[in-house]
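Exercise 7. Predict the joint structure of the components listed below.
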Amino acid sequence: MSKATKTILWLVVTIIVIGGIWYGVSKKPTTPTTKEPIKIGYLAVLSGPAAQAWGFYGRDAAEMAVEEINAKGNIKLELILGDSAAKPEQGVTEFKKLNEINNPDVLIVDASGVGSAVAPMADQYKKPVIFGAVALKGITKQSDYLFRNFYLCDQSAPLLAEKAYTKLGIRKIAILSNKEPYAESCFNEFKSKFNSLGGELVTEEHFLMTDSDFRTQLAKIKNTNAEAIYIVGYENHLKEIVKEMKELKINKTLLSEMVLYAPVIRNEMVDNTNPPEVYMTVTNYYLGSEKANEFKNKFKEKYGKEPPYLAGYIYDTIYIIAKAAEISKIKNISLKEALKEVDLNGVSGYLKFNENRETISAMEFVKLNKDGSLKIIK
Amino acid sequence: MISAYLIHLLILICIYLILAISLQLAVGFTGLLNLGHIAFYCIGAYASALLALNGFPFWFCFLSAGILAMLFGFLLSIPTNKLKGDYLALATMGFSFVVYAVALNWTSLTRGPLGLPGIPKPNFHIPLTTYNLQLTTNFRFLLFTFVIALISYLIIKRIISSPFGKVLEATRDDELATRILGKNTFKMKSLALMISAFFAGISGSLYAHYITFIDPSSFTLLQLIPVLAIVIIGGMASLKGTILATIILVLLPEPLRFIGFPSSIVGPMRQIVYALILLLILIYKPKGFFGKIELE
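Solution:
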């Protein structure tokens, strides 16, 4: 085959690929009517390290919620999944594709980096966007179309710092945190509050998303005079940290966000002959609420694993959307306005969007008992 | 009316094209296996973003991105001058790790993992007029990016067809012989790395002002893999191959988004299919589409 022929062939292939995409995107989206299902575009994290840590749980919870709501028959929902891999560029591509091709009525976006990248586009597409696993402060202020249903680091971390200082009398602390947006937010809030109370940050150590060995950082912390360690990261990190703390015989008091109470880590902490004291801030999800327990049992039955709190938030978000769809139909208002009127007793507690369109979950300061249960410290 | 999704893809093609042809200049035409290219992209993006967020005009941010990246290109060329092949690759890879670590940990400057949100879209003042050209719509940004990509391509094409370009290729093929003929190969390699870094820097600036948010996760070594794949699949020392490969590799994942994979495997499945297609291309065309030399 001559060079020219090969060039022409490849050009033809390229034109066909571009043409195919053009055809796909130029199909006019159907105008939604009241008979059609409410389309939810869920920009989840379905690949990369974050997918294993929490992304898949969000997807599973969303699918379970949609199934339950559709089975009841009042409102029909359709879930359309997209994968951002927690990367801003891929998130933007997928966000545009969801809006242009699938034309959802509402979107859910996970991952702080992706949230920051897509937030400026909310006004362009004029569809409500609800941030799931997004921890960044003030992200909803950019547009009236932005909502968030997730716990806030600037609520939980300062509470933890304050209780550690006032209730536990801790004055010197070491911090071990992941270098990624969620952990960095919590780290900044905790450090700021603890310092403002007069506490001393003895040392701060960090690790990367892909790290799986923390002995170097833990050994450094062990040799300091810190009375407690504040650790923040994902499940897979915290599990290894707790294991290595046992190995290195580090008995300093442990402070963390509620991700530490995930079942795989909880078992590791309980199975320790000389465990350190462990304190966390948690929402209703881990405080034995009936709704939360019912959700956890259903999830475990369906997927064979206990869901972490993030799954509870996504599950609640789907129910919030369903309730908003009902309000929108009854009052003949837009879905965006209806979302502002929703209040829900969800698995994460009582949820209602405030003036910044964020839900605020009630949080408690708790201690982990030897048997794995939690005790509220007032 | 061209869909915003298609415009987005075309913008990405233009940005990746500039990044890829600049890497082609270093790898394909000069024989410098530079695995630190993504670091120049990162430096350009952060420089442009930080200047823009502090109120500097876009044209200044854009050019500064290229110039700062070029400066780092020069600094990198000094310690790596005597290195070749795998050793050069390792050294430049180390440089990309250093730049990533700085972006991640110098939180007072870069905000670390929280990234830099709210990077403004380009806004030019046209000289000798009172008119401001605002690239606030994606279509205008596409036109601008296309013009920059075209200019970049023409400049690099001019460089490689010039006597300087011939010396670069001679250095790639046999550095010792080139030196014996009286050419200062260190200077040639430095200049090639600097020019390559300049264009990587300006593509970083375009990326930052388009996505309007950057964080260190967009500039890890893993992000170099698609760019290196474009250079290899397009064919070493071939600019037209690079153009074709950029179009194909940027567009390749898109049809996969429309395939209805089950939700339990959608993310990993797309990555597997993408990787398989790349492998097939390399099996069928081991030198790439228009490759003139082997990657050694």
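Discussion. The longest strand of chain A covers residues 200-207.
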